[in-house]
Specification:
By secondary structure, this protein is α/β, with parallel strands linked by helices. The chain is built from ten helices and eight strands. Helices cover 38% and strands 15% of the residues. The longest helix is centred in the C-terminal third of the chain and has 18 residues. The protein binds 2-phosphoglycolic acid.
């Protein structure tokens, strides 16, 4: 019922030229993918990557979007600007943005609502820190992020949630398949409770955090995990393609 979605998050990697080379190598490797495949690229790479993706089913994503339609917001990019280049997905509230750039549940909420209103599909990131997990606060943190970050969202099938435990991002320390499945099951249960008419059964929830060619199969075999948000491994076409083909 829920189509799996594997998305690459290039973060601040790849010039436009490097991004085009990566996409050219990736295209034939994922041509027969059964899941949805997305690459979320640096904003300045978007025009060139868009061109390079021509004729492929790989979808284009951005890594952030501002909540205003336009105006005096130096350094920001609007939904309309992304749409002009065929961007379909946008990552919102990645933990790196929360940690280094002052992103809060409130700004995540505003960006998410703006993206939805514009017809972009937000990939909204939530997840706990190591300290929070060790202190038994995982569910409490997820609860707060779900309550404050998603107010006003109507149909949750129009967005993707990425559950990314911060301690697993870029560390090589993956959550166990069980930990990831449990947290994601909790997220769906809470969305159903907090937002009763939200279509939450059809919302896709990804796992993110050191997902790679070696562990993707086991993670994706979990009933609650609908996809992956992939950082490091999305920079290597062979590795990313192996994750996309988790079902082989
Ligand atoms: P990672 O990053 O796969 O390199 O851990 C995931 C993410 O930050 O989305």
């Amino acid at each position: 019922m829920r189509k799996p979605i594997i998305a690459g998050n290039w973060k601040m990697n790849n010039t436009a030229e490097e991004g085009v080379a990566l996409v050219k190598a990736l295209k034939p490797l994922v041509a027969d993918a059964k899941c949805e495949v997305v690459v979320c690229v640096p904003a300045i790479d978007i025009p060139a990557v868009k061109k390079a993706l021509h004729g492929s089913r790989i979808k284009l994503g951005a890594q952030n979007v501002h909540f205003a339609e336009k105006g005096a917001y130096t350094g920001e990019i609007s939904a309309k600007m992304l749409l002009e280049y065929g961007v379909k997905y946008v990552i919102i509230g990645h933990s790196e943005r929360r940690q280094y750039f002052g992103e809060t549940d409130e700004t995540v909420n505003k960006r998410t609502l703006a993206a939805l209103a514009a017809g972009l599909t937000p990939i909204v990131c939530i997840g706990e820190s190591l300290e929070e997990r060790e202190n038994g606060l995982t569910e409490k943190v997820l609860d707060r992020q779900l309550k404050e970050g998603f107010q006003g969202v109507g149909d949750f099938s129009k967005l993707v949630i990425a559950y990314e435990p911060i301690w697993a991002i870029g560390t090589g320390k993956t959550a166990t398949a069980q930990q990831a499945n449990d947290a994601i099951a909790y997220i769906r249960k809470r969305v159903k409770k907090l937002y009763p008419h939200s279509n939450a059964g059809r919302m896709r929830i990804q796992y993110g955090g050191s997902m790679n060619a070696g562990n993707a199969k086991e993670l994706m075999a979990q009933p609650e995990i609908d996809g992956g948000l992939i950082g490091g491994a999305s920079l290597k076409p062979q590795d990313f393609a192996a994750i996309v083909h988790f079902d082989k």
